[in-house]
Amino acid sequence: MTIIPLLAITALLFYLLFNRRSRNPNRLPPGPSPWPIVGNLPHLGTIPHHSLAALAAKHGPLLHLRLGFVDVVVAASASVAAQFLKTHDANFASRPPNSGAKHIAYNYQDLVFAPYGPRWRMLRKICSVHLFSTKALDDFRHIRQEEVAILTRVLVGAGRTTVRLGQLLNVCTTNALARVMLGKRVFGDGSGGADSKADEFKDMVVELMVLAGEFNIGDFIPALDCLDLQGVTKKMKKLHARFDSFLNTILEEHKSGNDGGASRHVDLLSVLIGLKDDADGEGGKLSDAEIKALLLNLFVAGTDTSSSTVEWAIAELIRNPQLLKQAQEEMDTVVGRDRLVTELDLSQLTFLQAIVKETFRLHPSTPLSLPRISSESCEVDGYHIPKGSTLLVNVWAIARDPKMWADPLEFRPTRFLPGGEKPNADVRGNDFEVIPFGAGRRICVGMSLGLRMVQLLVATMVQSFDWELANGLDPEKLNMDEAYGLTLQRAQPLMVHPKPRLALHVYESN
Length: 510
Description:
- It is found in: Endoplasmic reticulum membrane.
- By secondary structure, this protein is an alpha+beta fold.
- It has one domain (26-508): CATH 1.10.630.10.
- It contains 18 helices and eleven strands.
- Strands 1-2-7-4 form a four-stranded mixed beta sheet. Strands 3-11-8 form a three-stranded antiparallel beta sheet. It has a two-stranded antiparallel ribbon with strand order 5-6.
- Helix 7 (141-157) runs parallel beside helix 17 (447-464) and helix 13 (304-319) runs parallel beside helix 17.
């Protein structure tokens, strides 16, 4: 008689096990075991996108981490990223709370960290129409070309001196954006004149980048937030006060007309001021705080990302001189050597576009996407994603996935040409194998401008100069290590000697 209870118990155990495996409504994605209190924070290491890629290789392309008291899911393959950013895009349309948005970006009144809803749509519409539409980009094309031409003259004037290329690229991208946004430069124009306000603004942008790349423990363990153990909050508040003062001055100068001769009613700030009382979005009027937060977003997101991408591209071409020569031959054929390349030439420069795509793949400017948060629980790849989970997409890992790319660590632009493995790859958020600007509702609003600026700068640097490394360094020994931050910076800045390859009058005539 004892066999019957035993069989019943065995059957019950099998039923429970099968039922758990088949239903498992709360089965979280795999991941490393968390530590007490701090969770998986120690697993992030000094370069999180590297550490998370290694964890994905061990646990799978969909990871679950516990950072402090916050559920975090990480997408590390194109197929998983597509489920989050396409299938479940609406559920992950908002940003999680963070100290940077609270203390620097006007308490979430900016575009980047604003909650998904009417106010966010209004701000995005303003940018899309007045700054990033095809018409606006075409109207301001001459400004970008003028600033790039100024950069070439600065590089020609450098002679045999060593230049820090990334720094000069950043000056160029910032001035080009500032002339559109404010009607004037914020940095020197290359003539050597000092500008204390421009120097101050540059210092503030650099400091913001540093703070944005820091981990603030209070974001993940709320009970410790008020203690500000690392002093991050104090630094953020101090930096916000400096930015606010700077932006207030610009705002008041525009309103009063005392802007030093800047062309009002053309630049974005004049448009924003005009929209202040009659913004036509669902969210209502546009406040001064929203205007300043928007300007802050554009300056931070629209300058360093482009300049760092171009710096990586030139570094790769220096390491691969045969690719540089091939790109220069295409440039000489399509553009010639008696004028500088323009944006109108870019569509004909097939190999140049492949170089830019390969740079976006191998060196994405934002290696970990800006975080999103789930509004409701959902299921991805059969796993439960809890409500309130933070989503990170490891753009860097996806673009180096050996299942998707042949020899993924090699810089090989031909993979994007006819006959290559991804000849029709679209970097505008449609092909999830390479998504340097993100995808879905929260895709980078300035993507079109970023593409134009990066392509024009890379094309101009390729056409206008041959490149030698400082101190006679062998290109094969060039350090290509990464430094983690808000954007993917080089661990060591690219120090070069530019050698003009066009007649000098070409640089002076533009």
